[in-house]
Amino acid sequence: MNSILAIGLMSGTSLDGIDAALVEIVPTDEQPAISTLATLGLPYSVELHERLLNVAEGQPVPVAEVSALHRDVAVAFADCAGQLMAQAGVPAGEIDCIGSHGQTVHHQPPTAGCVGHTLQLGDGALIAELTGIATVSNFRNRDMAAGGQGAPLVPLVDYLLFSHPERHRCIQNLGGIGNVTFLEAAGPSEAVLAFDTGPANLLIDGAMGLVKGVAYDAGGATASRGTVHPALLESWLADPYFQLPPPKSTGREAFGSARVRRYVQEAENLKAEDLLATISELTVQSIVRAYRDFLPHPPDEVFLGGGGVHNLYIRERLALLLAPARVESTSALGIDSDFKEAIAFAVLAWLRCRRLPGNLPSVTGARRAVLLGDLHGGEVGVVG
What we know:
Blueprint lengths: L3 E8 L5 E10 L6 E11 L2 H11 L6 H26 L8 E12 L8 E5 L2 H8 L3 E3 L2 H6 L9 H8 L6 E6 L2 E7 L9 E7 L2 H10 L9 H4 L5 H8 L2 H4 L8 H4 L1 H10 L5 H23 L6 E5 L6 H10 L4 E4 L10 H14 L7 H4 L9 E3 L8
Parallel strand pairs: 1-4, 4-6, 7-10, 10-11
Antiparallel strand pairs: 1-2, 2-3, 4-5, 6-12, 7-8, 8-9
Helix pairs in contact: 1-2, 2-3, 6-11, 6-12, 8-12, 12-13
């Protein structure tokens, strides 16, 4: 089977901008070989960021504004894809497909007897038209229609790329929200366990904005200078989400600005460094306890992806508390940790164009495996 070129476009819960990855996919009988040819991080404009934040935080916004944002996010995503191709020196005619996650502005998991609903902005048809490349978008809806959480969707890609015949592995994403994929050594895809562990960078970034006026805790330096407040930490860890068994997912609806303001108010007598240490430890402990409570056994190796990889406080604490497991970034396995999710959506687009399911019902709780994403840009047929 021939190799294909695919672009993945991703913007996460942090709303900070677009991650793009151009990858070559070579199908094999076992694991596909993935080579990353180029990557690009493109921040949102201040204006677009603020407009998206208003919607994502539940502000009263006219439906006309939501519709306009659906267009404007698509324009930004298409522009990012164009810049990536220019950087790589690869013309659009050589790209087989684009996988666009879009920008999530609302995600409601299913409740008893009620199908969930989700909204990712960024019109896939417009991206296809502006780039001239077949585009897959709107990945989460089909899984939710089948009764699933619609998240996390990366675990099938984690299984394809990272499963090992002898080692139990956790692939831990540290974006705005944290999620883990547990890969049983030599286990089938049906044995994959994955779920959102809770907030990763979302609360940390929000707290830094309120108390320091900056976007994030660079390198975890502020948290590293502080002391954790144990009683406050335990009260935050009592949130019912952390005790909820998988399948489960969460987002800004639960751990957004309202939660940040509450935590900052509850910690008003703490120094800023102690507040950040306590909030950062919440991320650490939510991960460690999720592994303890919900995984069938401890992992041999943990590989980290997402922006939180650069937070040394989180990395060092996870390495200490998850020992003797080896804790590294996915870059150690050849997948750029900063662009892992963009790479994953390129692979999911490839699966969709091959008419192969992209979800894992054991992960999302869907009734069955389904094709993920709406395909725009003509009849693509089977690629790769």
